[in-house]
What we know:
3 helices; about 65% helix
Amino acid sequence: RMAVREKRHHDQLVDQRERLYPDAKKSHADSVSWAVEAPDYDAVPNDATLKQAFDVAMDAETRAHDFYAGAIEYAADDQVADLFEGLRQAEADHQRMLRDEMAKYLG
């Protein structure tokens, strides 16, 4: 379920970026650090429990939320600020989804 939402989120961001910056390079994936939401792989043991896996995922979503919340104040214009706010809200939604799944599986 989360992967489907992430794919839809990605597609929406690509569409929005193309509307805002139609003449810009189509991708900066080769020069962007994806550490904003990447989990701390060194913190994940090979025999991770379900709780540990949820904790790693929640940490990644929290860091992404905090990054986008902080980026808003550096936005060059209102459209960029709106983009960061949308991303911040999406990360908050991901946190809520994870909490719901944790409650379902861990009680």
